[in-house]
Amino acid sequence: MQTAESKHKQSRVFDTRMMPSRIIPSVRLLLIAAISLLVLLDAWVTGQLFNLTEGILLLYLIYSAILYILTVKHSPLVGAVAGWEHWADMCWFAMLIMLNSQRSSLFFFGLFFPFLVASFRWGLAAAMRVTVVSTLIYTVVLLAGQMRARRFDLDHLLIPAVTLLVLGGMVSYWGGFEILLKRRLALLAEVTHISNPRFGAAHTISSLMEKLRAFYDADCCMLVMADLDDKEVHLRRADRLKPGRAERAESIPRNLASQLSSVPDEIAVVHQNRSYSLFPQSVRHFEYDVVQGQRMMAWREASERLGTTLDAECFVTVPIRYRNELIGRIFLTAGKPLFGESDIYFIVQIFEQVMPVIDNIRLVDRLATEAGTAERKRIAHDLHDSVIQPYIGLSLGLSSLREKLVSKSLTLEDINRLLDINAEAIEDLRCYVRALKGQAEQEDDLVSAVKRFAAKFSDATGIAIDVETEGTIAVNDRLAAEALQIVSEGLSNIRRHTPSMKAKIGIACSDDRLILRISDIGDAEFSAEPFVPRSITERAEALGGSAGVRLLEKEGSTVVVEVPL
Question: How many angstroms separate the CA atoms of 374 and 361, rounded?
Fold first, then answer.
């Protein structure tokens, strides 16, 4: 629970940020110096050069000078004194009034200074307390003087008291409202930086709810939102007694959701029960249409039922709208009167500031999820092409060695050739791992990389490969790496699924598109059947392109891949 002392410290922080720290000690020193000068001049004229009043004034002047010096020196003692300096000022002037009732009219104006200090430092409540106590002290001193003189003057007694109360009340309200505005500005500046966006929108919402509840020192902050996907209604709750509860969204029954939505979607309400009203038969109730910008008075009974549902003596509820659509409703509840009409406008302004931030977090989260899914698919394709394919080639090579061993035609050259192929496959795997770590060396260009790979593939399999290009091939490094993987998969398919011993690779750039053609030179005795190169098609679609197959009777087939540049 937030104590009064912690609230004072918080107000002190906001106050000293935006108000010059020397203004109060400077005015105090100037005021006491001026009063001391007047008193000394009056004492010199009357011939009474020193008495107890002048001694108290001298001590007060020294006290004021010490506080000014400490403020100029930025002493940490200033913070310790700030909590009671307005009471000290009131006591100084009260002593002066009691000791010298003849000059009470002069010291009367000094009583304005303590509640000015309290108002600037701590706000409405502290300033009103000082105002009431100062009024009582001055009234008692005047009344005692009139009783000693046996002369009762009602005007002389009431006019100063009313003046102190009226001016003190106005200054207290003004100072308290200024501090409240500073706190609101600080919260508005903080809501756009309230949490790490990497933790997601839910964490941002829960952090906002906790800060909003703490700002008002409310018992509970609830957020009701409808999920557009599954049509369920979810409730988040930031509770004073259970911090961190807002992180979890709970699904609530439809009947409870309808009770919480008993007021229209565009209506914001501040409602307070009879027990805290000055008049027993009245209820403090305020409605505001956030769409039309008008005050309303049509939903008092619904608000009373809503207060019963929330089990709250006082509550404020504001609809949350974004892009002219209702997305939820916020509730703040308390067991004592905390909310006013201006709080509706402030809460609306908070969510106008924070909803774009939450929407951006959701967008970034969705983009990151989609990017992660796409990256996993790409890695899966790379594993298929760069990891699985070499093992398939090694398996085929071992099968060939076994057949030669059975036919007794196995030679040392065959074994060395298979070892060379295995070493090249291991090196390819190492290159792939380095690429995953971001340490891979960049190829000179796509055409050179394809020619080098074709030469290695031809040596390993015996398939003659012809690489043809049309025009200038200028692609970025990432697209070149993807294109090389497509070529690798296409040649592997020719090796595994056709008897062709000749292949042709065509590379061209036309109409802002990269076009790859991977063809097997057909055998007159072999007729290709329709097929879909699944891995190549998935990789092309991931790049925003397409893949297709062209069959030529008695002449093989061609896989055509087109990717936008």
Answer: 20
